[in-house]
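Researcher: Here's the sequence for the chain we discussed earlier.
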Amino acid sequence: MINNIASNFLHALRGRSANVFRSQAICRNLSSCVKIILLSDANMRTAAVLSLLAAADLIAASPLQWLWLSNKRQVESQMNDVDILRYALTLEHLEDKFYREGLANFTKADFRAAGYDNSFYKNVKAISAHETAHVEFLTAGLEAAGVKPVAECKYAFGIDSVDAFVATASVLEGVGTSAYLGAAKQISNKAYLTAAGSILTVEARHSAYLRANLPQSPFAQSQDNPLTPDEVHTMASGFIVSCPKGNPTFPIKAFPGLTVTTTGKIRAGDQITLVTNRYVLAAGAKGAKLHAVFVTANGPVHAQMKAKKDGMTFTVTIPERVHGQSYLLLSNCDEAATSVPDETVVAGPTYLEIK
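Model: Thanks. This is the structure I predict for it:
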């Protein structure tokens, strides 16, 4: 189940229409370029089209109203401390609503029927209270600084069972930990950094507790994986339906999405299948090449990848150096790269759990 819920993070529109909707060359560095060709069919709803176009940089629209200042992806350095705290509050709103809604939908008896004891239910309620406290803490901090905080958005989590709720909660806590970790380097104010760090450590405890009860290893690796704001938004935006018009904008946007279609337990050495969300990836320049890359604390870990002729399906072999909650993306960076900047990311990341 844990790998199947990755689709909740992405708008997985996988039709195979032959109609080309529009194409755009996305050059991520001086030596390579990848073309994204969007597909459409007569049954595609307008909302789905807009979501897909937004993911591929073709229209300036985003559920979070995160600002697109130009056709080029914004670099991380353009986010200031206020942007980072608002970004953190946006994520905390999502988590807070997720737990409140889940606990409203599932009773203690529902948790017991799913195999979880009363102490687990009590602790999930405590986690929910923590997320509410995080929202209040960040809101108060922004208001004290004379800054307008972001308001809660409208979400669609698609949770229909206690098991799905717990599995999704675990992923959200892991993504939250990686989000704070990845944003830490951008915070210049030490007081803000300490405040963010005080939340990061609690998110990590939530993640470990939930993982241990799935059951999964509560600490599958010696270091957590940092994610950039764009990478986090790519996964989290699938839950967001709309946000208040008055919410401030951010210099962040989502990458085109990827979905892992392989089900069941995944281990190092296994081969998995990735599919794009209704777009074709094709070489837009001679010699252009895509690479499958796992995000880790010690830099990118490349994986063997083969692309099928349709340009939408890829097989990837899981390398030995990744375990636990992992994030896989497609990039122009080759094996010699020591980092994967946002401007080199072509698609993803997508989430998968590796034993």
